[in-house]
Structures are given as C-alpha cells and as structure tokens.
Prior knowledge:
The complex is a heterodimer of chains A (454) and B (470). Chain A has 454 residues and is α/β, with parallel strands linked by helices. Helix content of chain A is 41%, strand content 12%. Chain B has 470 residues and is of the alpha/beta class. Chain B has two domains: 84-340, Aspartate Aminotransferase, domain 2 (3-Layer(aba) Sandwich), CATH 3.40.640; 347-467, Aspartate Aminotransferase, domain 1. Chain B has helices at 7-13, 50-56, 69-72, 77-92, 94-117, 131-147, 165-176, 194-209, 233-242, 263-266, 316-320, 329-332, 334-341, 347-370, 398-412, 445-460; strands at residues 21-22, 28-29, 65-66, 125-128, 156-160, 181-185, 215-221, 247-251, 270-274, 286-290, 384-388, 414-415, 418-420, 433-438. In chain B, helix 7 (165-176) links the parallel strand 5 and strand 6 (181-185). Chain B is globular and about 65 Å long. The two termini of chain B are 37 Å apart. The chains are: A alpha/beta (454), B alpha/beta (470). Chains A and B meet through helix 3, helix 4, helix 5 and helix 6 of A and helix 4, helix 5, helix 6 and helix 7 of B. Chain B: Residues 104-293 form the Aminotransferase class V domain. Chain B: Keywords: Pyridoxal phosphate.
Amino acid sequence: MESGERRNGDSMSHNHRAPKKPRLAGLLTESDIDSEFAHHQTGVARINNGSFGCCPGSVLEAQREWQLRYLRQPDEFYFNGLRRGLVASRTVISDLINADDVDEVSLVDNATTAAAIVLQKVGRCFSEGKYKKEDTVVMFHCAFQSVKKSIQAYVSRVGGFTVEVRLPFPVNSNEEIISKFREGLEKGRANGRTVRLAIIDHITSMPCVLMPVRELVKICREEGVEQVFVDAAHAIGSVKVDVKEIGADYYVSNLHKWLFCPPSIAFFYCKKRGSESDVHHPVVSHEFGNGLPIESAWIGTRDYSSQLVVPSVMEFVNRFEGGIEGIMIRNHDEAVRMGLMLADAWGTNLGSPPEMCVGMVMIGLPSKLCVESDEDATKLRSYLRVHYSVEVPVYFLGLRDGEEGVKDKDSGLITAYVRISHQIYNKTEDYERLRDAITELVKDQMTCQNLPSG
Amino acid sequence: MASSLSPPEKASYHHRHSSKRYSTNGNVESSSVSDFVKRPKISPQNYISCSEIESEFSHHDPEFARINNGSFGCCPSSILALQRDWQLRFLRQPDRFYFDELKPKISDSRSVIKRLINADHDDEVSIVDNATTAAAIVLQQTAWAFREGRFDKGDAVVMLHYAYGSVKKSVEAYVTRSGGHVIEVQLPFPVNSADEIIDRFRIGLESGKANGRRVRLALIDHVTSMPSVVIPIKELVKICRREGVDQVFVDAAHGIGCVDVDMKEIGADFYTSNLHKWFFAPPSVAFLYCRKSSNGGGGVADLHHPVVSNEYGNGLAVESSWVGTRDYSAQLVVPSILEFVNRFEGGIDGIKKRNHESVVEMGHMLVKSWGTQLGCPPEMCASMIMVGLPVYLGVSSDSDVLKLRTFLREKFRIEIPIYFRPPEDGEIDPITGYVRISFQVYNKPEDYHRLRDAINELVRDGFRCASLSS
C-alpha cells in the first residue's frame, strides 16, 4: 500500500539491523498520499486532525518493525538498541526546535504527562516551603481541561492560588490577548504574592487561536514571573517552533497531532539552568535522579516504538515540497480558505483573523441552530458524526454578562463555533460536506433542542 | 533427562478430561479463582499443539536460548494480531473510538481481570502500564499523607531489601522525600524455608515500630525479582494486620500467570501485577487492585494516577482509563488472552503447573551437572528458579554478572540474568553467582542444555569472570 515495499516481519529476518528505510522515489503524489492514509475510514469527512492527529502507513510500518525488533529479543533490545534509538529521536527533535542541547529534550507520552511533571514540581515547592501559600499560578481560562485538573491536583491542593485569564473570543488581534494577560499577571501579584508559574498555550485548543507566545513570555520575564510553561500540544508541525526564541522554561508539544507520529509521543523541553531542575517523571524507575531525559527513557516495561520512529517521520515529511514548512503553509492556507468558504456560506464569522490561525480555524455556526450549552455542542457534534459522517468538534461560547457577542447574517447571536482542521489527507469535499450538512439543518429548522439524541 | 519430551509435550499426550486444577504445590484444590473461567469443552485433540505453539512464537529470535521470560515476558502472535486490530480501530476513526468504544472496552478488560483475581468489585481494578506505575500511584498516596500531616514524620514504610530497584527509587522519591522513614528487611539467600523469611520480616516490623512509630505501609513482593523467591505472602499480610500496619501493598510484578493470585485470600490493600510478563499480554499492561474497604492513609479515595487528566476525581480506575492520548491497545486485548490460555490444557493453571514442574526439573538438571545448588527449595519457586554457578568462574561483583551475562548473550546466544550473591563472613568458597532460569510455554529442554553446556565449557577452558573486559 505504501511506496516502499516492506512486508510484515520479513525485513526482520536478519537480526540486529535498524528498520529498513522506505525507497524514496521523489515527492509524494496525491494518490501516494491516499495510500498512506488508506487505513482512515472512508466516507468520513475527517476534519478534526487537531484532536487525535494522524499517522501515515509508512510510519506505521516503521513502528511495527521497532515493535517486532523488541519482541524478537527484548533483553538485547533493552541493552543495545533502545537507548540509542531514543537518543536519535531526541536529536532530530532538538535540531528541529533549535534547542541548545539534546539534554534539554525529553520524550514523554503526551502534553498531559509534561503538565504533571511541571505541576508536581511546583507542588513540591509549595509543600516544602519554598513558595508561600497563595503564591500564584497564572493560566488562560481555556487551558486544556487536563491541565486545569492537574493544577487542582498538585497546586490548589497545597494552597497555591490560581488566576485564570479570560481569552477574548472571537479575537481580532494579539494586543487583545496581551492586555488581558497583563491584567492577569497584576492580579497574580496582588497582595504581595509572587507569580511562580505562568502556563501559556502556544495554540489554544478550544477555542483555537494562535497565541502571541513570544510576547507573552517576554512580559512574564519583565514582570518577574518565576517560571513559564508553554503548553504547545498542537504546535510542532503546525507552526514554526524555536524554543530559544520563545524563551520559555518548559515547552511541550505532541508529535502525534501534527507531526505524523503514531500514538503517542511528545517532546518536553526544559531549558538548561545552573541549578538543579528538580523535575522528575512521576513514574519513578531505577533511572531516578539521572536527569529527566534518562528518567523518561525508561519508565518500566513499555512499548516505546512510537518514540523511536521520529527519524522515519522526517523522511516522510521530506517527501513533500518544502518539507514540514511546506506542509504547514499549505495546511494553514487551505484551512483559512475553507474557513472563509464556510463563513461565507453560513453568513457567520471566523473566530480569529487568518494570521492567528494555524492548520485549524474556528468558524461561527448559524445562530438558528440555537447552541445554548456544552451539552448542545456535544449533541450537535454526535449528530454530525452519525447522520452526516462528519467529524468536527463544536465549541459552545458561553457569553458572560456585559459581553456583546457577534451576530450572524440573520442578526442572531453566534454562540457556537466549529473547529476545522486541514491535514494533508483532507480534500475540499470534506468541508463542503460540513457546509451542506449545516445548511441543511438550518433549512430544516433543526435546532439543538429538537435534534434527536443519540 | 528421564524422557525426551518436555513437560508441555508430555501433557498434550495425556488426554485428561479431569476438571481438577492444581496449585503450584501440586495439591488438587477446588479452585475459587478460576471457577468463573468458562472453559470451552475442548477435546484433547483440540488443545493447542506443539507446532501451533512454535508458530505462535515464531517471531522470537530462533538463534537464542531465551530463558529469561521473567524480565520482559512474551506475547503470542495471535494476540499481537488482535492488538494490531485494536490499533487500527483507533487510527481509522479516533474520535468515534474515543467517544463510543474505548471506555466500555477497558471496562471489559477490567471485568475479566476482576474475575481472574477474585476481586469483589470492578472499581477495585485499575489498569495501568506496569507495576512501576502502580508503585508510583500507591506511594504518592503515602507521600500525601506525610505531607498533609496524617502521618507523623518518621513513621515507617517497611519493604524487602530485595525489592525491585525501581520500587526502591520510587520509595525514595515519594516517601523519604516527604518525611517517611524507610526500613529494608534483609532476607537470607539462599533460603531454605518460608519460616526464615517470616522471622526476618517480623524483626523488620518490630524495628519499624520502635520509638513509638507507626508502620504506615508494608511493601512486599509476591515473587522477588533478583534473587527470585516466592514470598509467603499470605502469612506476611496476616502478620501485618496483627501488628497494626496501616496498609499492605503487594508488588506482584511476577504475579498473574506465575503464582496464584486471589485477592480475597491474600488480603492485601493494594496488589499489582504485570500481565505482559506471564499472562501473554503485549507490552505493556498491568492491573492495580485497591481493596474497597482499605483503611489508613487517605484511603482509596485519595489514590490518583499521577498523570492527571480531565477524569481526575472520578476514581482511580476511570482516571487510569484516560491519561491523555495514548495507544491503549495492550489494555484492550485482555479478554482475548483468556481465550488463548484456554487453548492449553488446564488453562492458565495448567500452564502455571507445567511451567513450575519444568523449571524445577531444569534447575535440578543444571545443579547436577554443575555441582552447585538451587537458591531455594522447589516449593518456594513458581516458574523461575535460581541456580548456582560453579564457584570456579570467580563471580565477584555486580559488574561481573553483567559482563558474564553479556558474554553469554554475544558468544553463546543465551539470554539469562545473573545475580551476584555477596559472600558472607565465615563462608568458605560460597557460591556467588546464580542464574535465574525461567520456563514458559515456548521453552524447550535444549534451551537449558545449551546453558548447561556453555557453562561447562567455560569451566573446562579455565574461564574466569576477571578476564572479561568492561
């Protein structure tokens, strides 16, 4: 099915060799791409790459080879192959993100894990008296739910104070975000408190906006925030990532979302500092104390194959014109183009201007659908999946008192947005299907209230 | 060797229709643990055959005498194929899979495990990556109790000196750091009887309670890793209860598929076992059992997966079922594994019994050939056994055993872990090196003959560990 000819298991007939590389035969054609994603369910308008990402067939093959290599002789692989393979992946990533030193790069399962690592450390500082009770953690109100829960579990539990900065949405410029953030920092410092940690999304999840992360980190430094953690779950493969430029203390991004890795793998960057960093993987193994990259490289017997395919992924992306940069640009341009097409068709708006989007765009849903709660949004999403084979997440925008909101062409308040994604496997028809589904629902006077459940 | 057939081959010739089930001490017992297993009425001709077993493990490196199932386990290709199916189901349409299938299917796996281990409620069973993760969960709970003043600084956590290296580090990271006092119980090795262990453990508990301290947690291996010995866990748990230990956590990494795992019989508060070691699961999946009526510390309600997700607060089992985007396929194949083991006569109990008998037989064979000894009596081992290496080889350090192991792997294509047993005062020419041999369904007597012959060759050639380079 893929362009390289690899048969399952046969390439491992000679042991101890690295997985075979695919035969590179120039740039991938459209039908090559179709082949690479032949395992995706046909007939589904899969416009939600942002949630779970995707993995091409040739990378899955490479993963399988690593898995078989381990299963074949696991002891030998553990002693001779695993660490080298992980260092190779970390080195590729370190170069990609412009880190100073590969020792700054650890591999973990996902951004959720990285958040636990950072917040456990912060929690220990509170427990051990390094931080005063009521010192603050500042974050955005739309931070990923897992991160918020992690703050509850590790920071609030030990007396830390949290300030949530409300992300303006729809948003028109970086300045709107920056000024809200400054207000949040003020609040965090009120009454003699110290802001110990700022958590900033590089690209928020829901609603989805590309944040002015460099500026926000600069402000944190100016305002004496002790540490900055950038949750960039969506970033790598979506937007250029230069960790030195961004300047955060901690930066995490999932590679299985936009960089074609199989589930699951994330890199976790920790800027080198003079003093001991005291970050530890929460699953403690015999490598405890040897530095986070080494701790994370062995957290007990696991399948580490998804962390080993990074070099194969780079081979894959380099078969596209412009490599990963080319992919990012095309995804962005197409997502915006489709977004504008939908906004136009529905008479609604984009949630942010094109320069504040990546390969994902938020588009207002017609007010006539009457999305009035999170439950309504979920219901609508399920309905689209079941009745139209369209997979797209729906965001309910709960307006607060005093917020004006944006009206659609019917002069109704826009209370919900879809978040469309564009990845290399998507086609225009996917978005047209969404367009027509919504248009039909409106025409049939369907609302979230009269939509049949289930 | 008395016969040319290995025990599994012998067994498949004996067409026993009997529903007797055997525990590892060879007694027939009416099993409570395996009762639920709806064993299809397989006729003997339909039991898995030798060539089918070979085929199931044809992905193993054929050059190797793979006698170390204990470290990384094994997974038959039919289970690997099913795992791949699960992986593809997710990749095919991940959102739908996440919303519609993942949680109920993980619940199914938990249900199967619950019945296998004789737990009371599904809620008591959480699925995690491995025993290392389970240890972090339990120890984090202990750490919170210290930090939040429910335990006094200096209260004790008692563990075995032979506890697994990762678990010791976890105790350091969570317990010592939060103010707990750690006591390691020294166990004898070689060991001659369960009583030796029980006596030493009692002494360890006493020292834990010295100076008015409380023993907040006893962390006990069901089967130690290196050196490997089956610990008399039921007795130790009883002693812990009598002596007022708050919580007992049994680390049974080598549990399910190796020894009898019956939660009600064992009576611990927490019990974890890997399924990828002896229960044919792909890497990696383990369960953590948490008794509902658990007392002490923060109780079951304070157990949390350290990787906090949006499921935080919904109970450990639910928290563990979603720790962010991951490949959960190893956890999803568990029900299928039951079908696999039931293709063997006696199911998992039959496998355990034959593994035990075979490993003891191979152990005796090696002892006889090398003139050494076993590390423990046969009744204190399950499917692994420690066999003394000839003194002549001059094993004198941890570094020696690692180098010797590497040498055996590279020169003889034998995979075997080796334990350095430091000599004690007054011992004359003690055995300082022990190999830990494992027996699993794919093993054959030839594997152990190769080890026997390799060591004999080394002795004949005047080999010494000191000659191995770093």
